[in-house]
Specification:
This protein is of the alpha/beta class. It has helices at residues 9-15, 46-65, 80-90, 107-126, 134-151, 173-181, 210-255, 265-280, 304-316, and strands at residues 19-22, 34-38, 41-44, 70-73, 93-95, 163-167, 186-190, 201-204, 286-288, 299-301.
Length: 317
């Protein structure tokens, strides 16, 4: 059984994925993906599209199953609604209005705007803006709406994404250029008028028709959704194993004998007396400790070796 659902060639044909641009507007590097020319319009080879889509979805599934962040980019009027809906369904990030320059290359500045959006949303929910006048609240609401429009879909972005899916890389050239600069894999629905060498996983197909876009984006979204589900299952397993290990450690610690420190006053006094005796005694004497309760003074005995030496010196004299 397949991990995720992929469209068949018949479904792609019905959706018009095979219809390319006019022959006079083609890009020469797309020649290997073109099947024929019909009424001065290029017809895309759907057999190649099917294979490339399978490879791209396998890569996206693997990336999602490892917890990687994936961005959908589609700012065309025909694609924005579909891209947003499918990205939200599968749990991916998305940009559907305009790709802000520096979203990847200058993420520090974008992160400030994201933090501002999140803090304003929290304050509005908690009612902190009620102290302001009606006009001031209206201006704050407009600012929040403007931020949500451009960066609301990437509010949870942690830094550089692990992959990027683009509808029409020719239109989204800024996003593709930033991704290439940081070697982020790019998967793109690409028509016959674009350069396929700019992306890592080209998906030849019609990037202008709404039905074609919905079929291709839906297939990509299915793979990512299943990948995130697999990641969640693995995460739960890892957490369960960690909990079991923690329980075992607690049981071992509870069974092990614990060390108790004797805080009896007599023992403390004995220790202090021993330290004083060691300071006053000459070198070579041994200190014998009597730890019986009630005896606070230590017993000091001369070493046998000292006694032998003293007797030997007396006999010589």
């Amino acid at each position: 059984m397949a991990k995720y659902k992929l469209p068949k060639i018949e479904e792609m044909f019905e959706a018009g994925v095979h219809i390319g641009h006019q022959a006079r507007r083609w890009h020469p590097k797309m020649e290997k993906y073109i099947f024929t020319v019909e009424k001065k319009i290029h017809i895309i080879n759907l057999e190649q599209t099917e294979k490339l889509l399978e490879n791209a979805c396998e890569f996206l599934y693997k990336t999602a199953s490892e917890g990687g962040q994936i961005i959908f980019v589609g700012t065309k009027r025909q694609a924005s609604a579909t891209v947003k809906a499918e990205a939200e369904r599968c749990g991916a990030l998305f940009v559907t209005e305009r790709w802000l320059g520096g979203t990847i290359t200058n993420f520090r500045v974008i992160k400030k705007s994201i933090d501002k959006l999140l803090t304003n949303l929290k304050k509005r929910e908690s009612g902190e803006f009620q102290v302001y006048t009606k006009k001031e609240r209206l201006m704050i609401d407009r600012e929040i709406d403007n931020l949500q429009r451009f960066i609301g879909g990437i509010a949870s972005l942690r830094g550089r994404p692990d992959a990027m899916f683009v509808v029409d890389p020719r239109k989204e050239k800024t996003a593709v250029r930033e991704a290439k600069r940081f070697k982020i894999p790019v998967i793109a629905l690409i028509d016959t008028n674009s350069d396929p060498t700019d992306v890592d996983y080209p998906l030849p197909g019609n990037d202008d028709a709404i039905r074609s876009i919905s079929v291709m984006v839906g297939a990509v979204s299915n793979a990512i959704e299943e990948g995130y589900k697999a990641f969640a299952k693995n995460k739960d397993k890892v957490e369960a194993v960690k909990e079991e290990e923690a329980k075992v450690v607690k049981e071992v610690e509870s069974d092990a004998p614990s060390l108790k420190i004797n805080t009896d006053e007599t023992v403390v006094k004995d220790a202090e007396a021993i330290l004083k005796a060691e300071d006053t005694l000459p070198l070579g004497t041994e200190v014998v400790i009597n730890t019986a309760v009630g005896e606070s003074e230590p017993v000091v005995e001369e070493s046998k070796e000292k006694e032998k030496k003293s007797t030997a010196t007396k006999s010589k004299k």
